[in-house]
Amino acid sequence: MRMNATANLARPSADKPRRLTGPEKAAILFLCLGEEHGSELMKRLDEFDIHAITRAISGLGTIPQAQVEEVINEFLSSASSGSTVVGSMEMAASMLRGFLPDGRVGEIMGEIQGPLLGRNIWDHFSSLDPQVIAGFIKGEHDQTVAAILTKVKPDTAAKVLPLLGQARMVEVTERMIAIDQVPRHALAQIEETLSQEFLTAASRSAAPDTQQRMADLFNKLDSNLFEEVSEELEKRVPEAFGAIKAKMFTFDDLMRLDLGSLAKVMRTVEGQTLPLALRGAKKEVRDYFLQALPQRSRDMLIEEMNAMGPVRGREVQNAQAQLIDGALELAEEEVIRLPMDDDDDVLIE
């Protein structure tokens, strides 16, 4: 599979006419008939066909004159107008309003609009095993891989990046930082490929800014890998990388919370999560956590950590990530306030 989004990120794909599906040919005919006659004809269809044709009209775009004539000759040889037709979401909705109530039109367009805008594709893709995703994108150009990883969930991207290898991980990460917005025509091609060639076989709203997405991704990345990547990115894109680091919130940053807020964060996790997270923490961080606990709870936690013995680094990382997530959720609910890099009230021991 090759999506060739490298060239497409700069310009639309070649002018070669694409192969039309049955619903797309029907959509062209409906557009040639116009809203009034098209709506009248659509009344005679069942709901399945209405959905198929509406979906085709919504995503049709501009069809060259030659293809329009070919389609018209297939259905109605006497109805060739010699012009192009343009399908759009607005045209599809307008045609449906000719025979359906506004509420039903809204329902159908909502169902059609979601997949067309990639709202479901990226959720499904992000839920796949990172090894599967890495195997799928490894043959793509770095720019295409970067475009894909800026669309998947940060925790998924953080697991996929290391699987690309050290050198390529740095290249792709640099491109991800530089991407402001993926051109719509390139993103559409990627989404179509994912839907047709991968998601089928393997089985909202405004996106956050690039810097925040990268900060979320780095928060999920293994700390050792992050240090390796940081060294290179500091040299290549120091200004952009510095801005991203300012948006990050790491496990060590938890000791910058006041003791009351830190105690609330610790209550967001259960079982062995807290002792496991602290078992692999720096001594100063661990000591500060212990200060936030009553004496009895402190003694019990120390006893649990001592009884654990050696622990796996990945387990420690996952436990610490749960505490970070707990802190972010409490901050979002305005239960606590996270310290920022420009805060003046830095804790002094």
TrEMBL record:
Question: Domain Flagellar motor switch protein FliG middle spans what residues?
Answer: 130-203
Q: Where is the Flagellar motor switch protein FliG C-terminal domain?
A: 231-338
Q: Which UniProt keywords apply?
A: Bacterial flagellum, Cell membrane, Cell projection, Chemotaxis, Cilium, Flagellar rotation, Flagellum, Membrane
* GO CC terms in record: bacterial-type flagellum basal body; plasma membrane
Q: Does the keyword Cell membrane apply?
A: yes
Q: What domain of life is recorded for the organism? A: Bacteria
Q: Which GO terms describe its molecular function?
A: cytoskeletal motor activity
Family to which this protein belongs: Belongs to the FliG family.
User: So what does this one do?
Assistant: FliG is one of three proteins (FliG, FliN, FliM) that forms the rotor-mounted switch complex (C ring), located at the base of the basal body. This complex interacts with the CheY and CheZ chemotaxis proteins, in addition to contacting components of the motor that determine the direction of flagellar rotation.
Q: What's the name of the protein?
A: Flagellar motor switch protein FliG
Q: What is the lineage of its organism?
A: Bacteria, Pseudomonadati, Pseudomonadota, Alphaproteobacteria, Rhodobacterales
